[in-house]
Write a structure and sequence with these properties.
The complex is a heterodimer of chains A (about 240) and B (about 260). In chain A, about 45% of the residues are buried. By secondary structure, chain A is mainly alpha-helical. Chain A has eight helices and no strands. The chains are: A mainly alpha (about 240), B alpha/beta (about 260).
């Protein structure tokens, strides 16, 4: 199948997800289960990565500023904007591609191969809707919160690293307060919502149409991570072009 | 009753079902037998709509399933229960949640009523006290029985079983056969079973359909099968050298008996 056929099939799957649920309460239950899986399941990983990314950004920038005339409080300003505009949403997105994307593709692939999806179809459940829609809704709802936490921890990590390099916390905080543009937060949230949609929908597509055996589930999972990662980076560029 | 009229199914150039016509009779166990690759599973999946037929029709009590809208199909599917070869139990749910799932999705029963129904179905398949276990914590035979409990929880009119005995020891296979046979009679269901197992055929084959290379080669009852006179069917039933020799021996001694030898 060529990429255009894949894209068409992907759009058709998304089209099938939009239908009246057989029972709202079951869909909500599934939504909350997915929020738990995606949100709580990824919180620790994203937190740790965000803190270190903030710290690394601060250390790198402090190194660049050595022996220059640029004031040191610029570190706080640069870390804040880098984390909010780029690091928090994009790195969280890429981390989620690996963690959530592969998990969803594997889950649905296994369900497909072990005939669990067929069992749902036989019962009269719209499987595209029941298995895909709650995941997308849950991710769209929970990923922005994860991104906000990542941004906060990234900025915090930057502060800790700055203190470790001997710069006073006040200096860093002064940078954080300088030239704050609220729109950057909106940009971060827009990115996180778009990335959440991309990651879950691509992973669902790859898993839902998996066929064969264990080897194909592995391939579907890897393919979900690769395609979603490229799509996240590409959409990051287009969002920046459109909104900045 | 399910009428299958000239059903054909192709995948690309390969025609898997070649104009199969038969009737699945209500209140009886209708067994579909055949060698691996004969088209049994495709036939079953065409009947339940997991595969679209290329031509022909599948008619459920006068309702042509192959020409129904999605909405109409959804309605008819609540009348269908299916036991899959591997059980197809939902891994993330407990046994109780698995059986309760169709009730949660399609009925407005109270939680007490649902619990009562789940307990009844588990009791019916001789499984008690496994409600809180996960499918991975149960044996293959138990998974089949849980699958049967889930399949009958909505009181279906039609029960489909794909290789219910695969991977089970002979004793457990017989228990599953007895269970399916009892349930079919008790609820007057139209039961369709895909199987390789000749024990099942002889024990419960009220009606037997033999598929060979996608065509219906023979149909009859379990009482008629040994004297079918169909070479392909005999080749399937008496597959091993031992059974072939045994058959020759039995026929020989039977012949001698008849001749008074």
């Amino acid at each position: 199948m060529n990429p255009i056929e894949h894209f068409g099939k992907y759009l058709m799957l998304l089209g099938r997800t939009i239908s009246r649920p057989e029972k709202f309460s079951m869909y909500w239950k599934e939504c909350f289960r997915q929020m738990n899986e995606i949100g709580l399941g990824s919180l620790v990983l994203i937190s740790v990565i965000a803190m270190f990314i903030g710290a690394v950004t601060a250390v790198q920038f402090a190194y660049q500023l050595q022996d220059s005339f640029i004031p040191q409080y610029y570190i706080g300003f640069i870390v804040r904007d880098t984390v909010i505009i780029e690091m928090a949403p994009t790195l969280s997105g890429l981390v989620l591609c690996g963690k959530v994307g592969s998990s969803i593709a594997t889950e649905l692939g296994t369900m497909r191969i072990s005939e669990q999806i067929d069992a749902l179809e036989i019962m009269g459940v719209n499987t595209a809707s029941y298995l895909v829609l709650p995941k997308i809704i849950a991710a769209i709802f929970i990923v922005p919160f994860l991104t906000i936490i990542a941004a906060a921890l990234g900025i915090g990590g930057g502060m800790l690293a700055t203190i470790a390099t001997g710069i006073a916390p006040d200096t860093y905080i002064r940078g954080l307060h300088s030239w704050f543009v609220p729109f950057n937060v909106t940009l971060m949230l827009v990115k996180s919502v778009v990335f959440a949609f991309i990651i879950t929908s691509i992973a669902c597509y790859k898993g839902y149409y998996a066929s064969g055996g264990a080897l194909e589930i592995g391939k579907a999972s890897t393919s979900a991570v690769v395609v979603a990662s490229i799509a996240v980076i590409a959409s990051d560029y287009f969002i920046a072009e459109l909104l900045l | 009753m399910i009428e299958i009229k000239e059903v054909r199914k192709s995948f690309g150039d390969k025609e898997v079902l070649r104009g199969v016509s038969t009737v699945m009779e209500p209140g009886k166990a209708n067994l579909v037998i055949g060698k691996s690759g004969s088209g049994k599973t495709v036939f079953l999946k065409c009947m339940v709509g997991l595969f679209e037929v290329t031509s022909g029709s599948v008619v459920y009590d006068g309702r042509d399933f192959s020409r129904m809208s999605k909405k109409e199909r959804t309605k008819i599917r609540t009348e269908i229960g299916m036991l899959f070869q591997g059980g197809a139990l939902f891994d993330s749910m407990t046994v109780e949640e698995n059986i309760m799932f169709p009730l949660n999705m399609f009925t407005n029963m109270t939680s007490g009523e649902k619990q009562k129904r789940v307990d009844f179905c588990l009791d019916r398949v001789d499984l008690k006290g496994v409600n809180d276990r996960y499918p991975s914590e149960t044996s293959g035979g138990m998974q089949k029985r849980i699958g049967i409990a889930r399949a009958i929880v909505l009181n279906p009119k039609y029960l489909f079983c794909d290789e219910p005995n695969s991977g089970l020891d002979p004793r457990t296979s017989i228990l599953i056969d007895e269970l399916l046979s009892d349930i079919t009679k008790e609820y007057k269901m139209t039961t369709i079973i895909n199987t390789h197992d000749m024990n099942s055929v002889m024990e419960m084959g009220d009606k037997v359909i033999f598929l060979h290379f996608g065509e219906k080669e023979w149909e009859g009852t379990n009482k008629e099968i040994l004297n079918s006179g169909n070479d392909e069917l005999n080749d399937f039933i008496f597959a091993s050298k031992f059974l072939k020799e045994l058959r020759k021996g039995v026929q020989g001694s039977y012949g001698k008996d008849l001749a008074g030898g």
